[in-house]
Design goal:
Layout lengths: L5 H5 L8 H15 L4 H4 L5 E6 L2 E5 L1 H7 L18 H7 L13 E6 L5 E10 L7 E8 L7 H15 L3 E6 L4 E4 L1 H6 L40 E7 L5 E13 L5 E9 L1 H4 L8 H12 L8 H9 L3 E5 L5 E4 L1 H7 L3 H4 L4 H4 L16 H8 L6 E6 L5 E13 L2 E11 L1 H19 L3 E6 L4 E4 L1 H7 L3 H4 L4 H6 L17 E9 L5 E12 L5 E10 L1 H15 L9 H18 L2 E10 L1 H8 L1 H18 L5 E6 L2 E9 L2 H16 L2 E3 L2 E3 L2 E9 L6 H17 L5 E3 L13
Parallel strand pairs: 26-27
Antiparallel strand pairs: 1-2, 1-5, 3-4, 4-5, 6-7, 6-10, 8-9, 9-10, 11-12, 11-15, 13-14, 14-15, 16-17, 16-20, 18-19, 19-20, 21-23, 21-26, 22-23, 24-25
Amino acid sequence: MLKSSSRTRTGSKRPKASGANAAGRTAARKATAKAAITPVTDLVEALVVECRGGLITAMNPAGRALLGYAGKAPLGTPFVSLIADAAAARKLSGSLLALTVGRQPKAMTLLGRSGKAVAVTLRASRLDRGADGRLLVVASPAAASPAGTEGKEIGQAHAVIQAIGAAILGVDSRGLVRLANRAADQLFGIRAGAMLGHPIRDFLPAWAGSGVNGDSALSVPPEILGLARDITAVRPDGGHFPADITVTRADQSPNGGGLYAVIVRDASARKASEDANRSYADRLAQEVEARTAELRTLSKHQQRILEAASDGIVGVGLDGTIQSANRAAADLLNRDIRALTGISLDRAFVFGTGTTVGTTGRPSQIRAQLWNGPFHVALHARLARTDGESFDAEYTIAPITEGRETKGYVVTFRDISERKRAETEMLLSAAVLEHSTEGVLIADSRGRITKTNPAFRRITGYEPQELVGKSIMDVLFAEAKASPGVLNPLRTMTQTEWEQWCKNKSGKRYAARINMSVVRDPEGQVQQYAAIVSDITQRKLDEEKILYQANYDQLTGLANRTLFMDRLTRLVVESKRTKTNVGLMFIDLDGFKAINDTLGHDAGDLLLKGCARRLEKSVRESDTVARLGGDEFTVIMPALDSLDAATVVAGRIIRSLSEPFDLDGRAGHVSASIGISVLPQQAADAPGLLHNADVAMYHAKRSGKAMYKIYTADLEAPPPKGS
């Protein structure tokens, strides 16, 4: 990423080639380019495909495994044939260049060899110019690789290659160098990528049997594989140095060829005792050369991997100028890569919300942190793009050092706007949960309580430590007049709601409305339960009060006319279904008006209350006593065995009401006239039953009072004149 030192540039000249030899090398480099992705991507778990003219020219082993091509890759097949979405395939059938547009990976579904759909996130990079130029496509499985994972995987492969201090060369069966790491470039004193396509014998002349242009295949006797050998290595400037090499078989190609990994180590230090004439300065120079391997420019293969990363990565020189940048960095800042390279870091990274690049703003934090740190620590800032928009960014700074000397810096950054938004929503949700006036209870998949909020503690009186780990069933239904069966809807639904009376920790009753929700994973398995508990005690009391006032007499507490008619109507319907009798008494007090007139309305009210209590004691437990108004009362007698049973109750009432009443120290005397009607013998419905009992009561009053009459049809005749 940094500019090479003058020594490196001087010692990095590429060996000149003769005419025939140069032609052979050109053909070899073309052959090498056909499988350029193989050496590095063998270490990557994502699908990596190289395309030319829309056709697949190479595919890594992980990609073949992902798509079910266990043997031979589908070379020569159009890449669009792997795309499951027909519309997307048609859109890309003309050119795959659309895959290279955009800052973020693209979500796409590919078809495996067996027809299985594979969801991936995809990014493509151009390897050269032209409509039919080569493209590198990197796709990570979406289910196991969230956004940014492909960059992490590729970055891991890059880190492995660069962390190895020994020089590593990838050599194909024709003896051509296909891969050289930075340690190899440094060891041979050559600029990055200059070794690629050259015969290995240009650098290791003692290599046996290496040939190009079809002269002979690379011959590596099996007995030397994996064994260290001493050899003399040659630098392009003509210098020689002792080296030891280890050759291993790195790859088996389908057509019978192969890839060999050659590890080259500088044997100068080991040979120092054998070479007494080597000066201390030479040994020190070689040690410095070995340690500066990590500062070499990225190879072409590694640059392609870097381009596939979703994080923005820039290399910065000691003067604060950007020396290199990947495509993600340019996309995140809305800049062209060429325009980004060479400018000052504080011009590229502008801070603020909606700040236009180039205008005066706050000093660039990143520029100041290059020299003072902190290093290797995730920091946050809001970065502006050239189009005036801004985004939340997370960035890290890492110094590039050689020994104790800093040579430059690497700044890695990413767009975390979505993560910031999610974090803000989580903080807001936590604040709402903490300050909500409704109680909240969270339980795990087994129904064990994990969290409650302050409102839940206020409602129930229980502290969190008393509830955590307990069963949600024990807490909600221990003192409740409700059945755990109210949770049955959660077997098929995600939410249910009910109301119930409960007791808090101190034993006080309260009414609660409970809304229970269940959270399931994509497979439908329960992950959590969440209950919202609202204290509705006052509402329930108000409802009960309203219901009481609507159905009960305010003076006596007996059922009023509304409740009386409702119960009578329901009992009549039930009696017809069960074929049982329903009796009705209509009671009118004799002498009540005289009490009201002589002793006053307060005394009359006391009398009515006393009558109500005596009536309740005189009837059966299943009977209903009601006050219709004034001094008129009724008694509903369900499941009446016989008419005689009704007359027994009537006689008991007459005797009870004939006893004197204590009206605040004064005696009050009344009697009762009672009319009796029975369904179905004397009436067919509720109105008829009430009418007949009223008629019978009227005749009891005319017949001398303090008695009862049973309804008969002849009572409907008008009374004789003058009576």
